[in-house]
Write a structure and sequence with these properties.
By secondary structure, this protein is of the alpha/beta class. About 45% of the residues lie in helices and about 10% in strands. Strand 5 (about 145-150), helix 8 and strand 6 form a beta-alpha-beta unit. The protein starts with 6 loop residues before the first strand and ends in a 19-residue tail after the last helix. Mean pLDDT is about 90; it is low at about 1-5.
Length: about 280
Amino acid sequence: MSKNMSVAVYPGCSLNGSSREYMESLRAVLNALEIPVNEVDDWNCCGASAAHNIDQDMAVALPSRILAQTAKDGYSNLLVPCAACYNRLKHVQQEIKTSPEIRQKASVLLNQEINTPDTIVNILEYLQSTVMPRLEGKTLKPVSKKVACYYGCLLVRPKGISDEKQIEDPQGMDQIMASLGAEPVSWAFKTECCGAGFSVSNTTTVARLSSEILIDAADRGAEAIIVACPMCHSNLDMRRREIEKYSGRKFDIPVLYITQAIGLALGIPAKKLGLQRHFVPVKI
């Protein structure tokens, strides 16, 4: 397969560190389905979630270098599993394509010509277009649980950056989980904010927002929460103690990446999917 017919993956900082189980599970699923995994060479941090708030030059330069490196390596498509990274890269790609001033600024900052891949896709778009068709005809181990599919903020917003048509009620993750044998619940918080990057600087805000998410999921009968964002997973899983203290309730609902759920359906061992790394034990 030539590079221009394949997809490069940008893991970003989280998938290479604190949320490495996300990348582990993605690799495990793609390997099981014999789909090539090509990581962007010499990648750097994209600047989410701080650079675009404090340094506009860095906010342009960091994503531009990743995009230029992807195009230089000969890839026309870029998969970005992290919702925050996807949002930043898609935003800067759009600026480079529509603003000669931004393209020139990036070129000067990086001292190189700035080209970008043709398309940037998030994890749900990639799973639906490439992974799920490969599951047809395979014997799956049904994920027979009620699940709350949690999209969060950055996977579906803002309009014009995200290609999601139903911003308030997206269905892609629900459809994937239903095809795996799960029962997605109808609930009110699938796109509400969990506190995002305040996980360290303002844990009270995270506890308040995330407690609302967990309360609604639990009250709707969800036995697991499915996510596609490292920040969402971190807040709902790692901050469980703060959430329970704030809400005055105990929650035993595990939080899984969508790639881990697919891996379980394929019969991939839990350790290869990184399930042992979670703070809340996964019993699914």
